[in-house]
Automatic annotation (TrEMBL):
Family, as annotated: Belongs to the gluconeogenesis factor family.
Record PANTHER family: GLUCONEOGENESIS FACTOR-RELATED, UNCHARACTERIZED PROTEIN YVCK-RELATED
Primary location: cytoplasm
Annotated Gene Ontology cellular component terms: cytoplasm
Gene3D superfamilies to which the protein is assigned, alphabetical: CofD-like domains
Highest taxon above the source species: Bacteria
A GO MF label: LPPG:FO 2-phospho-L-lactate transferase activity
Keyword tags: Cytoplasm
Species of origin: Corynebacterium meitnerae
UniProt name for this protein: Putative gluconeogenesis factor
Protein location: Cytoplasm
Function: Required for morphogenesis under gluconeogenic growth conditions.
Cytoplasm found in the keyword field: yes
Length: 333
């Protein structure tokens, strides 16, 4: 199912981006079999707002871009070989115990150390990519750490009041309902390499993932939003398989689209890609298509969910199914 020389730019972060990149490797391979890394054309454009866990500790202690989502993207782009699997395991490995190293991922420390040594985060990622022979390039969406701030409803006795909540972890775990997010600093400069990758892509994917902290923040960087408007690529928003506890509890598929459009009202999208396992009435499907039409898009349904050993659908996207669905949209099937 490989398609020759399709350039893919994938925006997101965390586990959602990881699954999309596994799909992108299948789409962008230039020939059948196990090609050389140079035969791939994948760019991972990664969120830089994480402030929890190992990434948060390194961010606070070293004043650096949080490396965790960058590490996960590198792991996803290691080549489909024993060499690649070994490197993926190494950079994803976390130290155990109770000491100062406990909980840190090896890849986070490597990225942080190389970025400090070079004084250049993108050079550090490109060098590590050459060492691990990644079949694509990892590009932080911005070259400075960003913060997420949300307007949250339901944290006071009066449910109508909005309160500001700052930080990715705080937004992801708030017991209230997130209504809107913004990034700090306001209007940060984008990574020029990320802008270039979007402009040169044949297909751009946005999502899936934590809607308010991994997906929407990309759209709030003016140069990224402009590049998404200017690109000739097919722009595909991959919708989540289910609402996410904390950020989007109770969100319908239609609500995900409305929130996306609310934060990027000028952005034109070609397709919203949704899982066909979602149970919708005919009326709900009509409302969904109307929501998508606001950004000039249509909703396409496909079987996208991974299946576990017992044959049960999971809440993770299956890379092969996702690759097939994206390829069909690009081909116009």
């Amino acid at each position: 199912m490989n398609v020759p020389h399709i350039n893919v730019a994938s925006l997101g972060g965390g586990h959602g981006l990881h699954q999309t990149l596994l799909a992108a490797k299948q789409i962008a391979a230039a020939k059948e079999g196990a090609p050389d890394p140079a035969d791939y054309h994948v760019n991972a454009i990664v969120t830089v707002a994480d402030d929890g866990g190992s990434s948060g500790r390194l961010r606070r202690e070293l004043d650096i871009v949080p490396p965790g989502d960058l590490r996960m993207a590198l792991a996803a782009l290691t080549p489909p070989s024993e060499f690649g699997e070994e490197w993926a395991d190494i950079i994803q490995h976390r130290f155990g115990g109770n000491g100062a190293m406990a909980g840190h991922a090896v890849g986070n420390l490597i990225i942080a150390g190389m970025a400090e040594a070079y004084g250049d985060l993108q050079r550090a990622l490109d060098t590590l990519g050459r060492w691990t022979q990644t079949v694509g390039r990892v590009l932080p969406v911005a070259l400075e750490p960003l913060e997420i701030e949300a307007d949250v409803q339901g944290l006071d006795d009066d449910p109508r009041l909005l309160r500001s909540v700052r930080g990715q972890v705080a937004v992801a775990t708030t017991p209230g309902a997130v209504r809107r997010v913004r990034i700090l600093p306001d209007k940060p400069p984008a990574n020029p390499a990320a802008v270039e990758a979007i402009l040169n892509a044949d297909v751009v994917t946005i999502g899936p993932g934590s809607w308010f902290s991994s997906v929407i923040p990309h759209l709030l960087i003016p140069e990224i939003a402009q590049a998404l408007t200017d690109t000739d690529a097919t722009v595909i928003v991959i919708l989540n398989l289910s609402p996410e506890a904390g950020e989007t509890p109770g969100f319908t598929t239609e609500r995900h689209i409305h929130v996306f459009n609310q934060h990027a009202p000028a952005l034109k999208v070609d397709h919203f890609l949704a899982d066909s396992g979602i149970t919708l009435s005919e009326g709900e499907r009509t409302y969904l298509q109307r929501a998508a039409a606001t950004s000039g898009a249509e909703v396409t349904f496909a079987d996208l969910a991974e299946v576990d050993a017992d044959g049960q659908r999971t809440i993770r996207h299956d890379p092969e199914k996702l690759a097939a669905a994206i390829t069909a949209l690009v081909r116009g099937n």
